Amino acid sequence: MIRILLADDQRLVRAGFRSILDDEEDLSVVAEAGDGDEAVRLAHEHVPDVVLMDVRMPVADGIEATRRIAADPALGATRVVILTTFDLDEYVYEALRAGACGFLLKDTEPAELLHAVRVAARGDALLAPTVTRRLIAELARRAPAPPDPAQHLAALTAREHEVLALLAAGLSNDGIAAELTLSPATAKTHVSRIMTKLDARDRAQLVIVAYESGMTLPGWLEQR
């Protein structure tokens, strides 16, 4: 059973999500929060597998709540998915840096919502290739020049550098395997080792590291 915490200040939004999620045999909404502080408190109380977190909430916003949940060792297995109205919401990047594993549009189709919750629960990131490239392009527009990549990625092997660059461009393990002529299992092993070396919670955090280290630039995959 995947246990879910809903955090949104709009009751109708929570009710709509609950009705979809609770209809599934493997999903259960264990609590609802109307603000960020309540979300953190209920996360500690229920230790959910997934938190669906709105950004704009009273008392403490979703970014602060996500940061507090992600920083708590007792909630190390809890994954936060940000709920947003626009896929390039100005707060999405900060939410990913705070520890969210990805983001989901509020008007998503029910089947996509169910898939996203299950993906998050197993520890994968919710960053589709097209969304990842748009996100990186937006970061490039607003951020200063990146630092020397060697300062952050020195622990990685040459192959791991290749894997991280492809992951940051939005490729799945199967896509990485096809690009580098590896088996999917080997690609998955490389991703796991990179996460360990860079102390990343999930694939979304690896995207942030790859960008901030200067490894990934907008459109790099199309220009290869």
From TrEMBL:
This is Response regulator transcription factor. It comes from the Bacteria. The modification 4-aspartylphosphate is found at D54. Residues 149-214 form the HTH luxR-type domain. SUPFAM superfamilies: C-terminal effector domain of the bipartite response regulators (SSF46894), CheY-like (SSF52172). Signal peptide: none annotated. Residues 3-121 form the Response regulatory domain. It holds the Pfam family GerE. Keywords: DNA-binding, Phosphoprotein, Transcription, Transcription regulation.
